[in-house]
Amino acid sequence: MERVIQEGHCPEQTFLCLPLNAPTTMGMGMVWGFLDFLKENHPTWTGRLVVACGSNPGYVLSALRHGIKRCIFNGHPEALKKLKDIAQQKGAKVDIPTGVVL
Questions:
Q1: Closest by Cα among 94, 100, 44 to 71
Q2: CA atoms within 13 A on the CB side of 90
Q3: Are 24 and 63 in contact (CB under 8 A)?
Q4: Which value, in Å, is the radius of gyration of the alpha carbons in the chain?
Q5: pTM summary value
Q6: How far apart are CA 51 and CA 16, in angstroms?
Q7: Domain residue limits, the chain
Q8: Cα angle value 12/62/92 (rounded, 5°)
Q9: Which secondary-structure segment (H or E) carries 95?
Q10: DSSP H/E element including 52
């Protein structure tokens, strides 16, 4: 992503996918700061932030509380169903991992 930004290319529909534990190790302030940087330097960027939460439902709940609108969760199917309901109430989405994330 850094190279894309340095070269002045930032596809408008880019998904910024944070790896597991990124918000807890970097802090949400850094995450929001990075998003602000992208929006300031690439005003046409309308991409989305996706947080990979692994199999930990607590990570999903925390991300939703911080205003994240899309999470990836690969835990128990019953937990996924409940998390999807909670996310929907907040205008967010929780999915299972599919495809390749670069």
A1: 94
A2: 21
A3: no
A4: 14
A5: 0.69
A6: 8
A7: 55-96
A8: 45
A9: strand 93-95
A10: strand 48-52
State the virtual CA torsion across 73, 74, 77, 82 in degrees, nearest 10.
Answer: -10
At 48-76, the pLDDT tens digits run 778 888 888 988 898 888 888 889 899 99
Question: Tokens 């070269």 map to which residue?
Answer: 7
> Which of 46, 62, 65 is CA-nearest to residue 54?
62
In degrees and rounded to multiples of 5, residue 77 shows phi and psi of -60, -35
8 Å CB contact between 52 and 18: yes
**Which H or E run contains 36?**
helix 28-41
b/e burial code for range 24-41 (CB count within 10 A of at least 16 → b): eeeebeebeebeeebeee
| Structure tokens belonging to residue 2 | 């850094």
